[in-house]
């Protein structure tokens, strides 16, 4: 299985793309995922070709990403042009770097419920279909920061067109969207193009259900079984580490009726799976606050754990 690094993990270092690539080669991964254009250090053609040449010398494949492509999301930056213009511009970047895909997202948890944002994003995607296909690529839409549940992302992908749209499957974000990560995997497996991988601790509190992101192997969701299932359902797709630790726990106040205004369409059976997973978990030990060095240490623990405890089960 190809292992990759989403450089967002190491954002605190403010490295050049060449430093990210050198670090990834030393880590022993085969893929570097530049999930945001800012990490590339510039988008001019000559600079991008130098980045591509450096990756080639190190034997690293590249993937490229961008930010929100949904005009109604508060995460969308209209100052960069229309959503279609931004996608077309980043398709050129991805093509120069040899990326087979362009990762993007709609918004985050503050946009929920998502129906109107899905309705705004689908025409944007359809409008760039020919440009994506002409570039020989696909768009990989992420289940991002508590925005889309798997069922909703599946609807979006199928409505836009599976010939040019797929999923960037994030293993940590389902718990932000009130979803069992195994359900997310099962639902989106046919559409997965790439991944962001991290672990989660999930547990029940008197006021609801809490979660916290962890280094891979340090959570409570059964990430070893999740990776084995991923290998079965998504053969040939990479595992790219996006490790985020040191943030305070997030509490879903699921016993408050007002909470459900953000999740009006969630079926009871889906929530039951999430609740069962939470009741089987427990709160983790206190984490140190996030820093550049703690992020790197958590990443390196994750890669080592995955090689020792997960990949040998595949």
Write the layout of secondary structure elements.
Elements: E1 3-6, H1 17-27, E2 31-34, H2 45-58, E3 61-68, H3 83-97, E4 101-105, H4 115-127, H5 129-134, E5 138-142, H6 150-160, E6 165-170, H7 181-188, E7 192-196, E8 199-205, E9 208-214, H8 223-233, E10 239-241, E11 250-252, H9 268-279, H10 292-310
Parallel strand pairs: 1-2, 1-10, 2-3, 3-4, 4-5, 5-6, 6-7
Antiparallel strand pairs: 8-9, 9-11
Helix pairs in contact: 1-2, 4-6, 6-7, 7-8
How would you explain this protein's 3D organization?
The chain has 314 residues and is α/β, with parallel strands linked by helices. It contains ten helices and eleven strands. It has helices at residues 17-27, 45-58, 83-97, 115-127, 129-134, 150-160, 181-188, 223-233, 268-279, 292-310; strands at 3-6, 31-34, 61-68, 101-105, 138-142, 165-170, 192-196, 199-205, 208-214, 239-241, 250-252. An eight-stranded parallel sheet has the order 7-6-5-4-3-2-1-10, with helices on one face. α1 (17-27) packs parallel to α2 (45-58), α4 (115-127) runs parallel beside α6 and α7 packs parallel to α8 (223-233). The radius of gyration is 19 Å and the shape is globular. The mean pLDDT is 97.
């Amino acid at each position: 299985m190809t292992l990759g690094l989403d450089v967002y993990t190491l954002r605190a270092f403010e490295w050049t793309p060449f430093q990210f690539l050198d670090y990834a080669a030393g880590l022993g991964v085969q893929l570097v995922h530049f999930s945001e254009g800012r990490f590339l250090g510039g988008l001019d053609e000559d600079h991008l070709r130098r980045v591509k040449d450096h990756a080639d010398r190190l034997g690293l494949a590249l993937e490229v990403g961008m930010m929100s492509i949904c005009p109604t999301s508060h995460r969308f930056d209209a100052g960069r042009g229309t959503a279609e213009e931004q996608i077309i511009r980043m398709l050129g970047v991805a093509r120069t770097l040899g990326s087979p895909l362009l990762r993007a997202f709609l918004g985050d948890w503050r946009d929920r419920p998502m129906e109107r944002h899905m309705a705004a994003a689908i025409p944007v995607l359809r409008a760039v279909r020919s440009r994506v296909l002409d570039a020989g690529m696909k768009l990989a839409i992420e289940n991002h920061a508590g925005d889309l549940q798997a069922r909703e992302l599946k609807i979006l992908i199928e409505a836009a067109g599976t010939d040019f749209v797929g999923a960037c499957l994030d293993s940590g974000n389902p718990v932000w969207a009130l979803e069992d990560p195994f359900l997310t995997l099962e639902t989106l497996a046919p559409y997965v193009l790439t991944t962001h991988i991290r672990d989660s601790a999930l547990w029940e509190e008197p006021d609801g259900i809490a979660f916290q992101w962890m280094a891979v192997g340090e959570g409570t969701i059964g990430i070893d079984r999740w990776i084995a299932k991923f290998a079965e359902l998504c053969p040939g797709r990479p595992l790219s580490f996006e490790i985020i630790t040191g943030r305070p726990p997030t509490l879903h106040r699921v016993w408050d009726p007002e909470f459900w205004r953000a999740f009006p369409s969630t079926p009871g059976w889906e929530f039951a799976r999430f609740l069962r997973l939470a009741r089987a978990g427990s709160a983790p030990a206190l984490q140190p606050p996030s820093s550049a060095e703690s992020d790197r240490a958590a990443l390196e623990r994750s890669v080592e754990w995955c090689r020792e405890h997960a990949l040998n089960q595949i």
